[in-house]
Amino acid sequence: MSQEFPFNIYAKDCPSRVFFERLSDKWSMLIIGLLVQETKRFNQLKREVEGISQKVLSQKLKQLERDGLVHREVQATVPVTVKYSLTPLGVSFTGIIDEMKVWAEGNVMQMLEAQREYDLANA
User: What PROSITE patterns has UniProt attached to this entry (predicted)?
Assistant: First the structure.
């Protein structure tokens, strides 16, 4: 039985579109995917999310914190230690990310072959 929601993501003014956009962002998904494992410091995330710049990581963490998916904890040490973890809302999204990860890893070869065939046919 389907659940009724007051929002329609296909409507242009639906607020869920912003959330949908955020959660379909590769960096956001990779960050959440790592934080489900354990609480991490900024530099740990930077090392583990290969290819992300410091600026983009900082922006994405702020967005995810604002959206209620990530919790930022500042510890009064010298130097200051900042740790990131998932909120219950963030944890609730990790199953979807895991399913997408498994699907992507399981189907990437088919996608690459389709791209190769397309490129050859349209060269």
Answer: HTH_HXLR
CA distances to 11, 24, 25, 26, 75 from 30, rounded to whole Å, are 28, 10, 9, 6, 24
Domains of the chain: 16-121 (1.10.10.10)
Rounded alpha-carbon distances, angstroms, from residue 37 to 48, 53, 86, 104, 120: 12, 21, 10, 20, 41
CA pair distance 121, 57, nearest whole angstrom: 38
Distance, in Å, from the CA atom of 96 to the CA atom of 32, rounded to the nearest integer, reads 11
User: pLDDT per residue over 45-90, tens digit each?
Assistant: 999 999 999 999 999 999 999 999 999 999 999 888 999 999 999 9
Residue corresponding to tokens 């009064």: 76
Q: Is the peptide bond before 6 cis (omega within 30 degrees of 0)?
A: no
CA dist., res. 89 & res. 64, Å (int) = 11
